[in-house]
Write a structure and sequence with these properties.
- The chain is of the alpha+beta class.
- Among the domains are: 85 residues, conserved putative lor/sdh protein from methanococcus maripaludis s2 fold, CATH 2.40.420.20; 88 residues, Efflux pump adaptor protein, beta barrel domain (Elongation Factor Tu (Ef-tu), domain 3, Beta Barrel), CATH 2.40.30; 61 residues, Helix Hairpins.
- It is built from four helices and 21 strands.
- A six-stranded antiparallel beta barrel has the order 3-10-13-12-11-14. The protein has a four-stranded antiparallel beta sheet with strand order 2-15-19-18, with no helix packed on it. It has a four-stranded antiparallel beta sheet with strand order 7-6-4-9.
- One of its GO terms (cellular component) is efflux pump complex.
- This is Efflux RND transporter periplasmic adaptor subunit.
- One of its GO terms (molecular function) is efflux transmembrane transporter activity.
Length: 353
């Protein structure tokens, strides 16, 4: 009998403990559900503090060095190459003979033209004398004079052909490529030599439209070269394109004197010094991504008592990802930089960062 009573008491205690545990679990679940519900009502956002800073407006642009002058020297006439007088890497001066073309047939034409000229001189002298005595008409004399001029022109033309048998350098520079060998038959316009002048080079870069108004012709630009880390260079802006490309970038060329280290095709970086001093100091800025529907809207959200408040601001210049704020913010406000698409004025927010 006593054992039965004990079993009953133990059972009652266990049932009581189980009921208490179940009630406790339900209370905890209710708290967790309430917390989740409270968080769901809030929109997660990232924020930054609007602050004043000194803006560095220097602008870097990458590009490659190209020769100031380069040309493909070609033949002026048809013929067979007899001699090639230079090789790749040779330094040449403007007008220097690079190769010669066989001229035997041309020399025959020269002799024939000179003979024709001598006959024309003799005939013209005969007509001049006959005209004085009335032996020929004025028209016959004029024809004789015209024939003499034509023969003189023919001799000069053959002289030009003889001169063209010598292929001469159009510019001073270095033979970068030789595309001809003795015995080759060439035609007018056939490229024979590639000549480059690298006494000075041009660094060709693309400058964004937001920066193009900050540079000017003749401006001196510091330049660094990746493969020459121990050397520094400087160049002068010699060309700013009047028209941008499809990506709204403007081609700019910077002429650089070559100390012997630079080669055409090297990669370089130009640093355009556009920092105008006091106007870029102690400037109130916010990130460009903070604006609703872009910087041009002038609207952004700030944090106010745990909610998002939309305000309008007056913007100034844009420096990369930084936007100058002229009015509408005093500094120190928490500005929302992400999650704006889900926000309305007065929306509850949860600051993630």
């Amino acid at each position: 009998m006593k054992k039965t009573i004990i079993y009953i008491i133990v059972a009652v205690v266990l049932i009581g403990l189980g009921a208490y545990k179940i009630a406790s679990n339900k209370a905890n679940q209710k708290k967790e559900v309430a917390e989740v519900a409270r968080q769901v009502d809030k929109i997660n956002v990232n924020v930054v503090t609007a602050s004043r800073e000194n803006i560095n407006t220097d602008y870097a642009a990458n590009g490659t060095f190209i020769p100031k002058q380069e040309t493909n020297q070609s033949s002026e006439i048809s013929g067979r190459i007899v001699n090639v007088l230079v090789r790749e890497g040779s330094k040449v001066g403007a007008g220097q003979v690079l190769a010669t073309i066989k001229r035997d047939a041309i020399e025959v034409d020269v002799s024939q033209a000179q003979n024709n000229l001598q006959n024309a001189i003799i005939d013209n002298q005969r007509y001049e004398n006959a005209y004085k005595t009335g032996g020929v008409t004025k028209q016959q004399l004029d024809n004789s004079r015209l024939q003499l001029k034509n023969m003189q022109s023919a001799v000069r033309a053959q002289g030009v052909r003889v001169n063209d048998t010598s292929v001469r350098a159009g510019i001073s520079g270095i033979i970068n490529k030789k595309m001809v060998e003795p015995g080759m038959v060439v035609a007018p316009g056939t490229a024979l030599f590639e000549i480059v002048n690298i006494n000075s080079l041009k660094l060709s870069v693309l400058v964004d439209e937001s920066q193009i108004g900050r540079i000017k012709m003749g401006q001196v630009v510091p330049i660094t070269v990746n493969v020459l880390p121990g050397e520094s260079f400087a160049g002068k802006i010699t060309f700013i394109a009047p028209k941008s490309d499809a990506s709204l970038n403007f081609p700019v060329e910077i002429e650089v004197a070559n100390n012997g280290s630079l080669k055409a095709g090297m990669y370089g970086t130009a640093l355009f010094k556009t920092n105008y001093g006091a106007e870029n100091q102690n400037m109130l800025t916010v990130p460009a991504e903070a604006f609703v529907n872009g910087v041009s809207s002038g609207q952004l959200f700030i944090v106010q008592n745990g909610t998002a408040k939309m305000i309008s601001v007056e913007t100034g210049k844009v420096y990369g990802n930084k936007v100058q704020i002229i009015s509408g913010l005093n500094g120190g406000e928490q500005v929302i930089t992400s999650g704006q698409i889900n926000l309305e004025n007065g929306s509850k927010i949860n600051i993630v960062k």
